[in-house]
UniProtKB/TrEMBL annotation:
The chain crosses the membrane at residues 64-84, 91-112, 118-141, 162-181, 212-232, 244-265, 271-295. One of its GO terms (biological process) is heme A biosynthetic process. Its EC number is 1.3.-.-. GO terms for cellular component: membrane. The gene is ctaA. InterPro entries: COX15/CtaA_fam (IPR003780), COX15/CtaA_HemeA_synthase (IPR050450). GO terms for molecular function: metal ion binding; oxidoreductase activity. It comes from Paenibacillus solanacearum. This is Heme A synthase.
């Protein structure tokens, strides 16, 4: 087996591992299992193998997976720095390792000492960044790697490129607001969907204000991605990577908004946990796709070397 295949396998293992961490972190929050191991870290209630309770097993399983994935990331980093000639791959694995360690430290601090909801909301955001870096790393060793390094032959205006990166940043803000809603347990502040407590604009106090701001930001993001899709459609061919990535991003944001409504309407029902995990899954796909779109857009400046390469196609 060639070293390229080993790099590909380890990068994909890192990506899958980070995706699992995202879902397990959401599960910990939604089941309120964060205190399942008491205030001990890295042990759980003073034991290496804790006594069986649902909360302790969920929390400790999350810690265990973070530890295993961190080792996989370390092995991947060693392989990338020793055998890969792609500078961007080295940046991606470094970013993934940095944010993985950062979210692990933040998680440990949350166990040892109380943290505010503003700080705890960063935990999911850092995990999402780690996943995005591992996704980009995995794509480097696929047929999409060339478009990330050399472009797909499309020329975008500076305004569209700025809009793409601005949308990525705003998406992270929306994700943070969603994590803040979870950690403040404010979801019940808006009963019903799409209206909030039967009103277009409810009384903006307490939990209602927190949820409504998140909903409003999500709506703005949906409109922004629609406009971005139309703009890219005018400048890119229908078979270009940029066009297909923008189209998929718009599809994901629509699904994300609908899944948010599903979460709200499922409150009090057994399907609530499944709806919450689905919400997390879709936003991870959305953010990852926007990261790929943003990186690829950097190569769409119309320089001659960009035009010399054929565009790989997204499925």
């Amino acid at each position: 087996m060639t070293m390229h295949h080993w790099l590909k396998r380890f990068s994909f293992a890192s990506m899958i591992g980070m995706f699992l961490i995202l879902l397990m972190g959401a599960l910990v929050t939604k089941t309120e299992s964060g205190a399942g191991c008491g205030d001990d870290w890295p042990l759980c209630n003073g034991k290496f193998i804790p006594a069986y309770t649902i909360e302790s097993m969920i929390e400790y399983s999350h810690r265990f997976v973070v530890g295993v994935v961190s080792l996989v990331l370390l092995a991947t980093m060693i392989l990338v720095f020793m055998y890969s000639n792609r500078k961007d791959a080295k940046w991606y694995i470094t970013g993934a390792m940095f944010f993985t360690l950062l979210q692990a430290v933040l998680g440990a601090l949350a166990v040892i000492m109380p943290q505010s909801s503003l700080v705890m909301a960063l935990h999911f955001g850092f995990s999402l960044l780690s996943f995005a870096f591992t996704l980009l790393l995995a794509l480097v060793y696929t047929r999409f790697g060339d478009s990330m390094q050399r472009g797909d032959g499309t020329t975008l205006t500076k305004g569209v490129r700025v809009a793409i990166w601005s949308t990525l940043v705003f998406t992270y803000v929306v994700v943070y607001l969603g994590a803040f809603v979870r950690h403040t347990e404010a979801l019940g502040g808006c009963i019903g969907w799409p209206l909030c407590n039967g009103q277009v604009i409810p009384e903006l106090t307490g939990a209602t204000a927190i949820v409504f701001v998140h909903r409003l930001a999500a709506a703005i993001l949906g409109i922004s991605l629609l406009l971005l899709y139309l703009a890219v459609r005018m400048q890119a061919s229908s078979d270009s990577s940029l066009y297909r990535a923008t189209r998929l991003s718009f599809i994901f944001v629509v699904l994300q908004i609908l899944s948010g409504g599903f979460v709200t309407l499922s409150i009090g029902y057994d399907v609530y946990l499944l709806a919450s995990l689905l919400h997390t899954l879709i936003v991870s796909c959305l953010f990852g796709m926007l990261c790929y779109l943003s990186i690829t857009s950097l190569q769409s400046t119309g320089r001659s070397k960009v035009q010399a390469y054929a565009a790989p196609r997204l499925p």
